[in-house]
Structure formats: structure tokens, C-alpha cells
């Protein structure tokens, strides 16, 4: 019998298990992961950015946990020899009409107490990123890059060192209650536990349903496609270069990201994928597709943002179309500077009315916490989200 069982060995699940082990050192903790490794999906397929917290609504979970999580993450990397680099980034206004929006983001950053941020003019911008085109920018010196898979491996080590278990190749199939405990049926056997925390990411809504939680929220997968700069073009990017984000959509736009283990990533775009783990253009799963097609929220979202969807699909199939977006930031980038790079899939949580859940979202019972939305900056904020979940565990389960 386990005291706590966490579903999902991404950074949110492992951070939660680690923080529970610190709060309850005598507890027996189990982490279940359906793949044969930790960080197999969203955590292991993101751009590796340590976000500052500048974009998020002041007072939101995202704003609070990003800033706190960033500080915790950097400290964890220092103490555990995980690769990271606080290289800084610039957010670029490409034309004069974007300057008011730039100052709105800057003011939000001040409210979120992001240290060191500064609005810079064109000359200062070119000192930081000599190949960038723009009229003004925000310099965010506390943004960085990190090996998130390395962070997860270290978290799993620490969890195991405390006498707890990370069980791989163990897909959750159902959750039932029996004799005052939860029975978790998985592909590797059945486990009994007092409490369950669902951090299953792309499959979090399904795990919740298997436990009898009828949430209105549905996970809809969107693939983010990337290119990388060739070694000959990497010198054109010193750190991180971002455009102004579209305030109506929870993506930060096509940007340039120096990677901590080498190389420079360009992207992503965002296209609907017909499979929850659909990392290639040809990915298709009948059940995944039917679930989305039967969900009214998807069609309402599509009707509201059809034009953007067409633009993203065009960039997905046209390398030249993708290049045009990149050239808004660095005009000297050419087709021959781009080479293919692995994609990622984002779990977008939608309401039935088509609204995108833009903040962390939890549903709880007397024995369960279901994390049904952990959007970017969840990787940066992972350790802080772990603290938040421990707090919810104490409150909802009446634990001390």
C-alpha cells in the first residue's frame, strides 16, 4: 500500500513526488509512467527555456509559480550539476505600431517583479543581438535555458534515494475505490494507494475520467514544429529572440532559442494534430481524432481562430512561409540556414464553449488531485507547482 501515487513522470509529476517526499519523509510514494523513460512527452519536447514570468497576468498561478519556480529551478541545477545558462532574451517590436504592446508587456513584467528588465532602443538591441531587426525591445536578462530532461532524471534519482519508486512502462487503465483505498490498474499490475495525484499531461483528462471525475475540460493536442539553424548560421543568435506574442492565443510566436546542449532552435508554429502524441505530420489516431471531433469546444475554437489556423498550417507545409516569419526578426536568415528538428505536442485544455484554459487548473476529490491544465511555463514552474500541489494535498485530504 502506497501513501501517495503520482501519475506521470514529466517535470510536474516528478516535482510533486519530490516535494511530497520532503514534506512527508516517512510516506511511501509511487510514480507511474506509461513510457520507458522519464520526461517522454511535453517536458522532453519543449524548447528548454527558463521563462522569466514577464508575460503572465499578475496574481495568476502562472505568474506566481513561474517566478518562484524559476528561482527554485536555477538553485536545483546549481546544486545537482544540471546544465543551464542564464543567457537572457529580448522581446522585439518589429515596427512602430507594436511599441504600445511592448510597453504593456513591460508594465506587466514590473508588476510581476521580474528583475532587471529594461526597454531598450535599436542600438542597445543590436549590441545584444547584432543580426536582429526591430525598433525597440525588452531585455529580460534573467531568462535562461536548461536541460529539462536532465532535471527530471535528477528528480527521479532523488525520489528513489528516499526509498520511493518511479515505475516505468506502467500505463494507468482504471482507478477504483475499494475498502477505503484506491486501486490503480496499470499495464504492469495493480497498485493500492491512499491518495492519487494525476499529472498525466496529454492524457490527464482521460486519467481523471478513469477515476470517475467527469470534468468539462478536454485536452486537444497541438503540434509545435521547429527548425534548427545550421552550424554556419548559429552565430546570428547569441541568446533568445522573441517577437511580441498574439494576446488572443497562448503561444509566444515563432522565435529563436539557443539550446543549452548546443544548437539554435527556430519555432514553433502551432497546428492541430490528429494524435495526442502526434510528433509528425502523418500522425493519426482514430480514437484521439473522434474524441476531438465530438467535442463542441474544438469547433467553437476553430470558428473563432480559423484564419490563424490556416496561417499556421501553411507554415507547417511551407518552409518558405516559415522562413518569412523568422526573417521578421533576423532578415539575413535564408532557406539554406534551416534544417529539420524534432517537434513537440502541447496539451491544450479547452472548455465546451471553446475558451482556452490559460492558467493552471485543478480538480479535486477527497482522495485525488487532478492537474488538468499545466500550460507553459509549467516546466520552468515545475518545482513551485509541486509546492502548490502539496498545499492542495494538505487542504483537500486534511493532512498535516
Give short descriptive properties of this protein:
eight-stranded mixed sheet, single chain, nine-stranded mixed sheet, 20 strands, 400 residues, alpha+beta
Describe the fold and architecture.
- This protein has 400 residues and is of the alpha+beta class.
- The chain is 33% helix and 26% strand.
- The chain contains eleven helices and 20 strands.
- Strands 5, 6, 7, 13, 14, 15, 16, 17 and 18 form a nine-stranded mixed β-sheet that branches. Strands 1, 2, 9, 10, 11, 12, 19 and 20 form an eight-stranded mixed β-sheet that branches. The protein has a three-stranded antiparallel β-sheet with strand order 3-8-4.
- A hairpin with a 2-residue loop joins strand 10 and strand 11.
- The longest helix is centred in the N-terminal third of the chain and has 20 residues.
- It is globular.
The global form is globular
Query: What structural class should be given to the helix and strand makeup?
Result: alpha+beta
Rg is: 21 Å
What portion of the residues fall into strands of 2 or more residues?
Answer: 25-35%
Low-confidence stretches: none
- The end-to-end span amounts to 20 Å
* Tally of helical segments: 11
Number of strands: 20
The percent range for helix content is 25-40%
Largest sheet: 9 strands, mixed
Mean pLDDT: 94
Amino acid at each position: 500500500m502506497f501513501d501517495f501515487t503520482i501519475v506521470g513522470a514529466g517535470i510536474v509529476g516528478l516535482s510533486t513526488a519530490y516535494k511530497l517526499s520532503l514534506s512527508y519523509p516517512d510516506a511511501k510514494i509511487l510514480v507511474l509512467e506509461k513510457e520507458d523513460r522519464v520526461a517522454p512527452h511535453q517536458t522532453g519536447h519543449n524548447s528548454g527555456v527558463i521563462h522569466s514570468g514577464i508575460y503572465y497576468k499578475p496574481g495568476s498561478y502562472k505568474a506566481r509559480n513561474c517566478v518562484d519556480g524559476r528561482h527554485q529551478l536555477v538553485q536545483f541545477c546549481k546544486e545537482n550539476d544540471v546544465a543551464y545558462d542564464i543567457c537572457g532574451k529580448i522581446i522585439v517590436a518589429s515596427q512602430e505600431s507594436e511599441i504600445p504592446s511592448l510597453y504593456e508587456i513591460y508594465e506587466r513584467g514590473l508588476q510581476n517583479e521580474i528583475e532587471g528588465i529594461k526597454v531598450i532602443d535599436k542600438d542597445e538591441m543590436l549590441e545584444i543581438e547584432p543580426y536582429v531587426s526591430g525598433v525597440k525591445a525588452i531585455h529580460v536578462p534573467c531568462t535562461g535555458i536548461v536541460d529539462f530532461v536532465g532535471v527530471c532524471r535528477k528528480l527521479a534519482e532523488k525520489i528513489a534515494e528516499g526509498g520511493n519508486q518511479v515505475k516505468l512502462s506502467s500505463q494507468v487503465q482504471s482507478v477504483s475505490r475499494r475498502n477505503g483505498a484506491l486501486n490503480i490498474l496499470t499495464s504492469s499490475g495493480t497498485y493500492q494507494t491512499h491518495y492519487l495525484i494525476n499529472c498525466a499531461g496529454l492524457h490527464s483528462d482521460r486519467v481523471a475520467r478513469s477515476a470517475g471525475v467527469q470534468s468539462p475540460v478536454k485536452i486537444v493536442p497541438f503540434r509545435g514544429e521547429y527548425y534548427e539553424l545550421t552550424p554556419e548560421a548559429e552565430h546570428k543568435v547569441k541568446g533568445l529572440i522573441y517577437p511580441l506574442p498574439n494576446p488572443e492565443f497562448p503561444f509566444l510566436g515563432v522565435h529563436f532559442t539557443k539550446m543549452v546542449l548546443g544548437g539554435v532552435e527556430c519555432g514553433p508554429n502551432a497546428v492541430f494534430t490528429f494524435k495526442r502524441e502526434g510528433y509528425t505530420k502523418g500522425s493519426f489516431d482514430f480514437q484521439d481524432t473522434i474524441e476531438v471531433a465530438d467535442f463542441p469546444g474544438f469547433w467553437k475554437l476553430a470558428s473563432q481562430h480559423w484564419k490563424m489556423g490556416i496561417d499556421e498550417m501553411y507554415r507547417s507545409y511551407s518552409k518558405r512561409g516559415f522562413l518569412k516569419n523568422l526573417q521578421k526578426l533576423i532578415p539575413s536568415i535564408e532557406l539554406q540556414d534551416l534544417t529539420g528538428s524534432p517537434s513537440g505536442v502541447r496539451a491544450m485544455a479547452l472548455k465546451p464553449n471553446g475558451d482556452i484554459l490559460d492558467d493552471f487548473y485543478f480538480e479535486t476529490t477527497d482522495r485525488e488531485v487532478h492537474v488538468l491544465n499545466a500550460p507553459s511555463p509549467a516546466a520552468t514552474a515545475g518545482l513551485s507547482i509541486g509546492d502548490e500541489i502539496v498545499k492542495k494535498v494538505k487542504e483537500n485530504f486534511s493532512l498535516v
